[in-house]
Amino acid sequence: MDRREFLASIPAFLLLCQAGGRGGGEALAEGTKAAKEAAEPLWGMGIRVDKCIGCARCMDACKTENDVPKEPFFFRTWVERYTIKTDHTVVTECLDADKGVKPRGMDERDILRSFFVPKLCNHCKHAPCTQVCPVSATFTTKEGAVIVDGERCVGCGYCIQACPYGARYMHPVTHTADKCSFCYHRISKDQGLLPACVEVCPTQARVFGDLNSVASPLTRFRRMEKIDVLKPGLNTEPKVLYSDLDGEVR
Amino acid sequence: MNPETAQHLSDMMNQAQGYIYPNEVEIRWSVLIVTYPYLTGLVAGAFILASLVKVFRVKEVQPAYRLALLTALAFLLIAPLPLLLHLGRPERCFNIMLTPNPSSAMAMFGFVYAWYLMAVLLLEIWFEYRHDMVVWARESRFPMNCVYWALSLFSRDISERAVAFDKKAVRFITVIGIPSAFLLHGYVGFIFGSIKANPWWSSVLMPIVFLFSAIVSGIALVLLLYMFITPLRGKQIDMPCVDKIANFLFYAVIVDFSLEALDFIHRLYESEESIGILAQMVTDRLMVSLVVIQVLLGMIVPLGILILIKLLSVDSELRKLLYFTTAILIQIGIFATRWNVVIGGQLYSKSFRGLTTYKMEVMGLEGLLVALGVLVLPIITLIVMLKVLPPWPKEEAHGGAPAPAAAPAE
Q1: For chain A, which terminus, N or C, has the lower number of CB atoms within 10 Å?
Q2: From the list A94, A133, A153, which residue is nearest B22 (CB)?
C-alpha cells in the first residue's frame, strides 16, 4: 500500500469504526453523563430554628458580602422574631441588621413563647421567579442555586411579584432584581467556601451542604431532624429546610 | 442609596400595619402599571365594538366604526410606554423579544402586541382607508398628497374589484381580530391571574374579568368620544347609533358585574388562608377605590341609569346627557378596577400578617404627572390620526354636505 492508497482508505476506516462502536460508545457517554450529574452537588440549606439566638450577624455579613444596601429595607437574608402571647396572638418583627434583638415593649408575663426564624431565598426546585422572568435573567444553576444575571435583567419586577417568600427586591443602584444566591461566588468549586451567613452564625443554626451527598452535614440534618418547608401548599419545593418550625411561621 | 428614596422607604416602613416582609416595603408596580391594563383594555374594547359592524353587521354602529378603529390604534401605540418607563433597565427592553423565556407570560407581550398591531389593527385600518387614501392622494395638495400616497403604500387601484377585495379583507381581518383582541386583554389578565404567590391576583377568572371590563371600558370610551367629537364638528349625534352602543354597553356591564360578583362570592365562600388579610385590606385600604368608586360609581350607578333609560321613555337630549354621564362614570370605575388589582395586590404582605401603603409621587418617573401624560398621549395621538385619516368623509370635515354615514337619524 503506497502513501496515496493509505490516505484514501482513512475515511472508510473511520466510518467502519464509528458504525461498529456506536452502541458501546453511546452507552459509555450516557454513563459518564449520569456519573457526572451524580457527582454534581445540589446545594441546599438547613435552618435549626431552636438554635437561632437572633444576633443578626448573618444579616450584617450578607449585606457586607453582597453589597446589599445598608438601609433596613432590602435584605437577601433576614431574621424574624415571633412572639406568641398568652392570648395566642402573634407578634412578628424583622430584626435590625446592625442592632439585632430589639426590646419587645410588652410585659414578659404576657409572652407564651418566642423564637427567631432566619429567612432567605428558598432556591425552589419549581421556582416561580424563574418561570415568570421574561428574559431568563433568573435561572437555576446546575447545582440548584437560583441566581440572577444582573447583566441580563430588565428590571420589570415580575419575579418580585411572583416570589411567595418576599425574598427578592429591586436593587436601588443597579435597578435590577436581587436576592440570595447562596453566595454563589463563595461556594463554587474553585472557592469551596461557605455562604457568608453560614460562616458567621455563632450557633450553627444554619447548615449548608450538598443534598446529593450522603456525607454532607445537610443530609445528616435532613435525616435526623423533623423537617418542614415554608408554604408547602404552593408546591415550590424549597431547598431551604427548617427544623422545629412553628406553625405560625409564614 | 439615594437619601430621598431612603427617606421615602423609611416613611413607608413606619406606615406599615402589622408585619410585612422587609423587601415588601416598596410597592414595585406603581400607577404606571395601573395605566397599562387600562390602556390595553380600551384597545380591546374599542376593537370589539368596531367588529360588531363588520362581523355581526350591526348597521346602527357604522357611524362610530372608523372612530373605534382609530381609537384602538391610538391607544395601542401608547400602551407599551408605561411598561417601558417602568423598567429598571429600559435599554434592555428588546431582550424580551430577542431572548424570550418561553415559560414566562410576560415574555409573550412583544409577540401578542406585535401580532395585534401589525396583523390586525394596522392591516384592517389600511384596507378600510385604502380607497379613501388613494382619492385623497389625488385631491390633496403637497405635501399631504405625498403623505396619503405613502400611507396607501403607493397603491392607485380603486376599481370596483379592488374595493370589493378591500371589503372582503376587512371582514376577514375583523374575524381574526376578535379572538386576537380577546387574546390581548385576556393575556394581560393572565399575567396577574397566574401569580400563585398572590391570592388577590391568583384567580382563573382574572383573564375573563379583565376581558369583560375591557369591553365595557372600550365601548364606553368610543361612546364618549363619538358624543364629544360629533357636536364639535357641528353635526348632530346619531341617536340610533348611541342607543345601540349603550345597549351593548348595558349587556357588557351586566356580564362584567356578574363575573366580578362571582369572583367575590367564590373567594368569600372558599375563605382560604388569605381571606382575613384581604378583608382587612379592603376595609382599611381599598374602601373608597373599590367599594365606592369601582362598584358603586363605576358599576351600580351606570347600570341603574341604563336600566332607567330602558324602562322610561327618556327624550333624546336627556338620554345624551345620561349616556355621557354613564360613560364617564364607567371610565372612572374601570380605572379604579385596574388600580384595585395592581396596587391592591401589593398592599398586603405575603406573610398575611400586615398591610403596607402606597404613596403616589407627584413628580418623578413613576409619579402622577407622568401617569397623566401617559393617559393624555393616546388622546393627542388620536387627534392627529383624526386629522390625517378622518373617519368621516373629507368634504364633511371641511363643512361640506353631510355624508350618509354620519347623518343624523332623528
Answers
A1: N
A2: A94
Selecting from A134, A168, A250 the residue whose C-beta is nearest the C-beta of B100 gives A134
Q: How many CB pairs under 8 A join A and B?
A: 144
Helix (H) or strand (E) holding B251: helix B239-270
CA distance A156 to chain B (A): 5
pLDDT tens digits along B376-390: 999 999 999 999 999
Query: Which tens digit of pLDDT belongs to each residue from B137-185?
Result: 999 888 989 999 999 999 988 999 999 999 999 999 999 999 998 888 8
Q: How many domains does chain A have?
A: 2
B85 touches chain A (CB under 8 A): no
Give the ipTM. 0.90
Mutate to test the interface with B, among A83, A135, A249 (most CBs of B within 10 A): A135
A183 assigned to some structural domain = yes
Question: Is A19 in the same domain as A63?
Answer: no
How many angstroms separate the CA of residue B184 from the nearest CA in chain A?
A: 17
Q: Where are the domains of chain B?
A: 27-254+362-393
- In 3D space, the residue among A160, A122, A131 whose CA is nearest the CA of residue A46 turns out to be A122
CB B378 within 8 Å of CB B207: no
Q: Do A94 and B25 touch (CB under 8 A)?
A: no
Q: Concatenated DSSP letters for A103-138?
A: ---S-GGGEEEEEEEEEE----TT-HHHHH-TTS-E
A172, A235: one domain: yes
- Residues A189, A223: one domain? yes
Q: Which of A42-46, B113-117, B245-249 has the lowest mean pLDDT?
A: B113-117
Residues 84-123 of A with CB under 8 A from B: 90-94, 119
Q: Is A128 on the interface with B (CB under 8 A)?
A: yes
Q: How far apart are CA B243 and CA B247, in angstroms?
A: 6
Note which residues in 170-229 of chain B have CB less than 8 A from chain A.
Answer: 191, 194-198
Residue B311 to chain A, least CA–CA distance (Å): 46
Which among A170, A243, A4, A112 has a CA at the least distance from the CA of B5?
A: A170
| pLDDT score, position B406 | 38
Q: Does A42 contact chain B (CB < 8 Å)?
A: no
Residue A35 pLDDT > 60: no
In this prediction the pTM is: 0.89
Q: Rounded to an integer, what distance in angstroms lies between the CA atom of residue A81 and that of residue A128?
A: 26
How far is A244 from A224, CA to CA, in rounded Å? 12
Tell me which of 1.10.3720, 1.10.10, 1.20.59, 1.20.1630 is the CATH number of domain B27-254+362-393. Answer: 1.20.1630
Domain membership flag for residue A114: no
pLDDT value of position B2 = 76
* Residue B407 pLDDT exceeds 50: no
**A18 & A71 share domain:** no
Domain harbouring A234, CATH code: 3.30.70.20
